[in-house]
Amino acid sequence: MLRLSYDGLDKNAKEIFLDIACFYKGMTIDFAKEMIDISGLFAGGIKVLIDKSLVSISRWNNLEMHDLVQEMGRAIVYEQCIQEPGKRSRLFIAEDICHVLRNNTRTETVRAIFFNRSKIGEPHLDCADFKKIV
Fold first, then answer.
1. CA gap 129, 31 in Å, rounded
2. Which conformational region is residue 104 in: left (phi greater than 0), alpha (psi within -120 to 50 degrees), or beta?
3. Which stretch is the leader sequence (predicted)?
4. What are the residue ranges of CATH 1.10.10.10 in the chain?
5. Residues 6+ apart with CB under 8 A from 70
6. Which listed CATH number (3.30.420.10, 3.40.50.300, 1.10.3720.10, 1.10.10.10) goes with 2-72?
7. How far apart are alpha carbons 110 and 89 in whole angstroms?
8. Disulfide check for 81: which of 35, 86, 87, 111 has CB 3.0–4.6 Å away?
């Protein structure tokens, strides 16, 4: 049933939904809108997601999404290429990010990389790892 709600969205709203599921859940609406605008999408698509009850705004002005809805969004991204993380549109899992940066397997499909550096653990990434993908 959740997937039907996603499938019924237009391209812009689908992309925003995946961004929120992978990166912006719990972030302020203003921060998310700014990042969405920077990425070339129309941040007004958030209202569509709210209207379809896929996301909500907390009383602290943060984007919220039920864990099952977030899991579905992340699964959609993961399904893009199970074998090679560098072929997915979004990277948000620390191990996948390390793999892509260290092995230089990023492709043009990667739209964004977002991670909490404190969750990377060992081995640590350094500037040289990021320079490989530029």
1. 27
2. left
3. none
4. 2-72
5. 21, 25
6. 1.10.10.10
7. 4
8. 87
Question: CB of 53 within 8 A of CB of 66?
Answer: no
Which residues, at least 6 apart from 36, have a Cβ–Cβ distance to it below 8 Å?
16, 19, 42, 43, 45, 46
| Nearest alpha carbon to residue 29 among 14, 15, 45 | 45
Distance of CA 30 to the CA centre of its chain: 16
Judge whether 14 and 45 are in contact, CB under 8 Å.
no
For 33-75, what is each residue's pLDDT tens digit? Answer: 999 999 999 999 999 999 999 999 999 999 999 999 999 999 9
Q: How many helices (H) and strands (E) does the chain have?
A: 7, 4
Amino acid at 61: N
Amino acid at 102: R
**Total residue count of the chain as it appears in this document:** 134
Residue pair 111/41 in contact by the 8 Å Cβ criterion: no
- Give the position of tokens 């002005």: 61
